[in-house]
């Protein structure tokens, strides 16, 4: 088996419409633990950063947010940072199952964004990017076109810097595999209030 040289990091960011303990974002708060559990069960998941002072994985450095929170933030900033084996694994998790349910309802919990929702970027296998690096990459994508250092699903790059063609059939196969592994979580999520 060939050793993996790179992992795909993903940082996402949004701003809730209200404080994290408000009724307006209760649906998000109820779903969050199941989203993390679904990710951990997903094919191609490597690891995720936790949050300082919150039970779970350790934080990959001090938590920082993009400048958009200070510019627009009456609500709580929400973000996550994780590592995946490849872009197909990440897309299979992101757009199906438990996480797709959260995406479907996100407009109820989050402000309309004037910035990208996420930024994927490659890191050498075994290295954990910290929150500061992730935010720098996120702002780089927000300020410029996608590049090999900070890209999007629509304009993706491989670890070598060349344009990346996404294997849609593989995404579909991984999504089906994930669905089997998270059926119990999805069943619970579908009963939750928005």
Distance between the termini: 44 Å
- Pairing-aware structural class of the strands and helices? alpha+beta
Helix content: 25-40%
Please give the number of β-strands: 4
Rg to the nearest angstrom? Answer: 16 Å
- Indicate the mean pLDDT: 95
- Which range does the strand content fall in? 5-15%
Low-confidence stretches: none
Q: Which strands sit side by side, in order, in the main sheet?
A: 2-3-1-4
> What's the total helix number?
7
Taking the sheet with the most strands, its summary is: 4 strands, antiparallel
Mass-distribution shape: globular
Q: List SSEs in N-to-C order.
A: EHEHEHHEHHH
Quaternary state of the chains: single chain
Word description of this protein:
The protein is α+β, with helices and mostly antiparallel strands and 194 residues long. The protein is 40% helix and 15% strand. The chain is built from seven helices and four strands; from the N terminus they run E-H-E-H-E-H-H-E-H-H-H. Strands 2-3-1-4 form a four-stranded antiparallel sheet. The N and C termini lie far apart (44 Å).
Give the helix/strand layout:
Blueprint: E1 6-15, H1 26-41, E2 45-48, H2 67-72, E3 77-84, H3 87-94, H4 97-109, E4 118-124, H5 131-143, H6 168-181, H7 183-189
Antiparallel strand pairs: 1-3, 1-4, 2-3
Characteristics of this structure?
15% strand, alpha+beta, 7 helices, four-stranded antiparallel β-sheet, 194 residues
Give the structure's gist in a few sentences:
The chain is α+β, with helices and mostly antiparallel strands and 194 residues long. The chain has helices at 26-41, 67-72, 87-94, 97-109, 131-143, 168-181, 183-189, and strands at 6-15, 45-48, 77-84, 118-124.
């Amino acid at each position: 088996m060939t050793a993996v040289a790179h992992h795909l990091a993903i940082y996402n960011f949004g701003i809730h419409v209200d404080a994290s303990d408000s009724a307006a974002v209760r649906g998000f708060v109820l779903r969050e633990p199941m989203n993390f559990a679904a990710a951990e069960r997903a094919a191609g998941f490597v690891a995720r950063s936790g949050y300082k002072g919150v039970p779970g994985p350790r934080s990959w450095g001090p938590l920082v947010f993009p400048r958009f929170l200070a510019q627009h933030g009456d609500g709580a900033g929400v973000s996550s940072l994780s590592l995946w084996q490849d872009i197909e694994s990440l897309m299979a998790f992101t757009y199906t199952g438990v996480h797709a349910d959260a995406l479907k309802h996100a407009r109820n919990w989050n402000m309309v964004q004037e910035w990208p929702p996420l930024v994927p970027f490659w890191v050498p296998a075994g290295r954990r990017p910290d929150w500061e690096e992730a935010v720098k990459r996120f702002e780089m994508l927000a300020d410029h076109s996608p590049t090999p250092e900070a890209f999007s699903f629509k304009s993706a790059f491989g670890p070598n810097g060349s344009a990346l063609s996404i294997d849609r059939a593989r995404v579909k196969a991984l999504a089906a595999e994930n669905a089997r592994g998270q059926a119990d979580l999805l069943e619970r999520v579908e009963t939750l209030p928005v």
